[in-house]
Design brief:
The chain has 160 residues and is α+β, with helices and mostly antiparallel strands. It is built from 7 helices and 7 strands; from the N terminus they run H-H-H-H-H-E-H-H-E-E-E-E-E-E.
Length: 160
């Protein structure tokens, strides 16, 4: 087993012990503190291995592990599997369209706003009563704050 997998399994074991032995409130605090110390890239490695592999193939890992802040609009793993056989350039184009310069929590994404992506394209925000859409794709899990930005899990891939 490689070192990254060993570290990730150790983190999961610690979280499991905390949830079972100490309680969910404390475990949530530990998970939140871990996320805020992790880079966008480390968070993706720990939570979405397919996305991590595609970001690596596309050459985007240095951007997400640096000190500049970004917002990652993370597509679901199942849909990302369809990109695994694409060229690195195509993957880079698609995934760059899911990265926003700057740190945007869901509340910062105003209805009707357009935000520029790392690919140079613009995405349009649509706020509904109970959820937010980015170019028609719903944010299904918002505001995972990490040390160099924010991650929002999407319900699909943004079509560019």
């Amino acid at each position: 087993m490689n070192l990254l997998k060993t570290i990730t399994l150790a983190k999961l074991a610690l979280i499991t012990v905390l949830v079972c032995g100490v309680g969910q409130a404390h475990a949530h605090k530990v998970v939140t503190e871990y996320q805020e110390r992790s880079s966008l890239l480390q968070y993706v490695i720990d939570t979405q291995p397919t996305l991590a592999n595609l970001l690596t193939k596309a050459g985007l890992t240095p951007i997400l592990s640096g000190n500049d802040t970004y917002t990652l609009l993370a597509p679901p793993e199942q849909e990302l599997k369809n990109l695994e056989n694409e060229s690195p350039q195509k993957i880079r184009t698609i995934l760059s369209g899911h990265i926003l310069k700057g740190s945007y929590k869901e509340s910062d994404l105003k209805d009707g706003a357009t935000v520029e992506t790392l690919a140079g394209t613009k995405v349009t925000i649509c706020r509904k009563k109970d959820y937010t859409l980015v170019d028609g794709v719903r944010i299904v899990e918002a505001n995972k704050v990490v040390k160099n930005g924010v991650v929002h899990a999407l319900g699909g891939i943004i079509k560019s």
